[in-house]
Amino acid sequence: QKEVEQNSGPLSVPEGAIASLNCTYSDRVSQSFFWYRQYSGKSPELIMSIYSNGDKEDGRFTAQLNKASQYVSLLIRDSQPSDSATYLCARTTAGNQFYFGTGTSLTVIP
Amino acid sequence: DAMVIQNPRYQVTQFGKPVTLSCSQTLNHNVMYWYQQKSSQAPKLLFHYYDKDFNNEADTPDNFQSRRPNTSFCFLDIRSPGLGDAAMYLCATSRDGPGRITDTQYFGPGTRLTVL
């Protein structure tokens, strides 16, 4: 699905470091953005949703949205081995469309 | 706890033998979705129901059908499964449709389908 682009990784960070995950999208009509975490063989679970430009923080997670530059990012502070998973970026539009990115694989090294 | 439930968790079927996957929700959400996810790929939306209104994605094969008899239940029917249909099938719900402020999707645990 080319409408949402993610670097597939794998991304490796040491335990305690900041992991930075990025997502770009191809049009300006997107309204809602989501970050999901998916462990191998499991279903996606919601981490954050963001609708407005700027930063949104929830615990160790910060989502950043820049609609002018058409990117959304997820920062994970104090990364833990349990954060090792695939992170899926998703967006929706007012036109009833929903797109997932292909995901970025993150490994946190103890 | 309110949740999205999928049954069975694992399904094995034979090539060409019809199979039905089940999803139920206790969230009382208006929208229910079915996704197909193959290994190392993003979930691919097959279709969704907004209440009783069925919305089919343009590239969803005719082999895939869905039924939503009431708010709580939604079924995925695969009429003649092929080897290429082996995948994880994910059901999700949201309070409102895509593009609305309450369109966050909540996923069930998935059904892994094997086609022999």
Short description:
The complex is a heterodimer of chains A (110) and B (116). Chain A is mostly beta strands.
Could you describe the 3D structure shown?
The complex is a heterodimer of chains A (110) and B (116). The model of chain A has no long low-confidence stretch (mean pLDDT 89). Chain A has strands spanning 4-6, 11-14, 19-25, 30-38, 45-50, 54-58, 61-66, 71-76, 85-93, 98-100, 104-109. Chain A is 0% helix and 58% strand. With 110 residues, chain A is an all-beta fold. Chain A is globular. Chain B is mainly beta and 116 residues long. Chain B has no helices and 11 strands. Chain B has strands at 4-7, 10-13, 19-25, 31-37, 44-50, 53-56, 64-67, 73-78, 87-94, 106-107, 111-115. In chain B, strand 4 and strand 5 form a beta hairpin. The model of chain B has no long low-confidence stretch (mean pLDDT 91). At the A-B interface, strand 4, strand 5 and strand 9 of A face strand 10 of B.
Question: What features would you highlight for this structure?
Answer:
heterodimer, A: 110 residues, mainly beta, six-stranded mixed sheet, five-stranded antiparallel sheet, 0% helix, globular, B: 116 residues, four-stranded antiparallel sheet, 50% strand
Strand-helix topology:
The complex is a heterodimer of chains A (110) and B (116).
Chain A: E1 4-6, E2 11-14, E3 19-25, E4 30-38, E5 45-50, E6 54-58, E7 61-66, E8 71-76, E9 85-93, E10 98-100, E11 104-109
Parallel strand pairs in A: 2-11
Antiparallel strand pairs in A: 1-3, 3-8, 4-5, 4-9, 6-7, 7-8, 9-10, 9-11
Chain B: E1 4-7, E2 10-13, E3 19-25, E4 31-37, E5 44-50, E6 53-56, E7 64-67, E8 73-78, E9 87-94, E10 106-107, E11 111-115
Parallel strand pairs in B: 2-11
Antiparallel strand pairs in B: 1-3, 3-8, 4-5, 4-9, 5-6, 7-8, 9-10, 9-11
